[in-house]
Structures are given as structure tokens and as C-alpha cells.
Amino acid sequence: QVQLVESGGGLVQAGGSLRLSCAASGHTFTYHMGWFRQALGQEREFVASITRSGGNTNYADSVKGRFTISRDNAKNQVYLQMNSLKPEDTAVYYCAARANLGSDYASTRGWGYWGQGTQVTVSA
Fold first, then answer.
1. SS3 for 72?
2. Handedness of CA 6, 10, 15, 19 (dihedral sign)
3. How confident is the model at residue 28 (pLDDT cuts 50, 70, 90)?
4. Taken in order 33, 39, 45, 46, is the CA torsion positive or negative?
5. What pairs with residue 81 in β-bridges?
6. Quick one: pLDDT at residue 33?
7. Where does residue 105 rank: exposed (0-12), middle (13-18), buried (19+ CB within 10 A)?
8. Across the strands, what pairs with 92?
């Protein structure tokens, strides 16, 4: 069983930066981790993922070059560094975990554990 708690969200102006953190309980070093987001009235969408070792990452095209996912297995933490933020990045951001990572990593299906989410608001 894994429990995930996100933090670090807030209000920032366009062009600014935020760093989200996800604190995980349990043996999270055995899980692949990801970040998703859900804007008001829209479906939850993939943002980034990282393998259990941290050796491989994937990003949505909309955030490539601006966001960086990382993890510290010793601290059971996953991070999402978000730079050059845009108003369209406004959403609730969710941390997620799964035991096996396949080609469906961008789908919400297969991610068995979710945090409660943290709000990110980017003003124009």
C-alpha cells in the first residue's frame, strides 16, 4: 500500500516557477511515479513520469523543456520542477504511483495510487 501527499502548489505569475513535492509512504522505491493534472471541467491528463530508479523519464509535449520530474528514493519524495509557467498550466496536480510501467504510462489507467492533489494557478 502506498499513500501519496502532494504539496507546493500555489498562485504564480506567468513566467514564474513552482516546485511540487510528493511525499510517499511505504516502499516507494519499488514504484514508478508520475504527475498528472486536471483543469476545471477537463479530463485528467498526463504530465510526466519517472521509473523506479530515476533512470528514465517521460513528458507530455506541452511541458517538455519547462518541467522536470525527479525523485529521491532515500527520502521517499518525488518532485516536479515547473518553470516558465503559463496560464494554461493552471490545474490541480496529482502524484501517482504504479508497480509496472508500460507503453500506457500516459493513461490514468494502471496508476493504482493517487494523492489528493495540489492546486496550481498561473495568472496572466
1. strand
2. negative
3. low
4. negative
5. 19, 68
6. 96
7. middle
8. 38, 119
Confidence of residue 13 (pLDDT cuts 50, 70, 90): very high
Long-range contacts (CB closer than 8 Å, 24 or more residues apart) made by 40-46: 40/91, 42/91, 44/94, 44/108, 46/105, 46/106, 46/107, 46/108
Count of alpha carbons within 13 Å of 75, Cβ hemisphere only? 9
Residue 106 contacts residue 60 (beta carbons within 8 Å): yes
Length of the chain: 124
Grid cell at residue 106:
500516459
Q: What is the pLDDT of residue 26?
A: 76
Q: What is the mean pLDDT of residues 72-85?
A: 95
Alpha carbon distance, N-terminus to C-terminus of the chain:
40
The Cα–Cα gap between 124 and 116 comes to 26
Average pLDDT, the chain: 95
